[in-house]
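Revision sheet: structure tokens.
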Amino acid sequence: MKIKLIVIGKTDQPYLQNGIEIYHQRIPHYLPFDYVVIPDIKNTRKLSEDQQKEKEGSLILDQLKAGDELILLDEKGKTFRSTEFARFLEKKMLGGIKNLVFVIGGPYGFSDTVYQKATGKVSLSKMTFSHQLIRLIFSEQLYRGLTILKGEPYHHE
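Predicted:
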């Protein structure tokens, strides 16, 4: 299985970018991994929140291929403990999913079209985090989940 993480906009803070890069260098030791940054939409002051979500949604959907399974990182999604998330990944692997695509949306979330295309939603916390910080948190949890599946000592429980 291959995992792709799609995000909207670049990561501005160097400390976040450094942390993200650490995990993005580690993840390919376990499975193929792509990180796609969709550039921020220009002239958003002229757009309503819904118009911005629609434009971002179109760019997100353009990144998908036939057969991709789309999972949204969304505050209303299912929450997992780290070991449960590892089992979620394992189930996808054993279920024959070739491309599992996770998406971190922009500041206003996702368009209805993106929600309709998604097969699931995952929440990383009941708290709200910036969409840039979530990139680091998700990347670490993805790495953690993969080490759990391999029985490596990174995760302690």
